[in-house]
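Chain A, query sequence.
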Amino acid sequence: MHVLLIYCHPCADSFSAALRDAAAGALKAAGHAVEVRDLYREGFSPALTATQRALFHDESANRAGIEDHVEALRKAEALLLVYPTWWFGPPAMLKGWLDRVWLPGVAFHLDGRGGLRPLLTNIRRIGVVTTYGSQRWRLWLVGWPDRRLIGRGLRPLCARGCRVDWMALTRMDSSTPVERERFLDRLSARLGRWR
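Chain A, predicted structure.
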């Protein structure tokens, strides 16, 4: 399977970087092709300019400057997002990647009546690897916004029956080195079973 791994964290020495490396290693060991895109290292520009917003619905011109990201998304059979959850959502850089890359003509077609026709039917699996500073019960209390964004927003634009795998370490801010190591092991084992 060709896996597009989108990584989003500004610090090279973060635990998220260890998660990225463990995820990529486990997928490669299982025989998958892995394309890693590091949004911060690439200097991805997440904010829509006025011109980009004006061209948003123009499928012939809306991907100018992001062609390589569109190509990677279209080539992927699976998408793995690795990021820390901040304020119950993905970092602004990752949200900007969604805003700029999951465009009309790329991720969906608008039917003129408010309906969407999915275009990323090449993607049959989405994985999320993330950390939360809070406890799991607090995520349920606030409605788990990032999980809803992925499951109810992105997933319907992918292949019918697309699976979503959620791998999260809660209480990151108070976790011990042993707990983090165990999470890395569980992550590697789970991704090693991807088919």
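The first strand starts at residue 2 and ends at 7. The mean pLDDT is 91.
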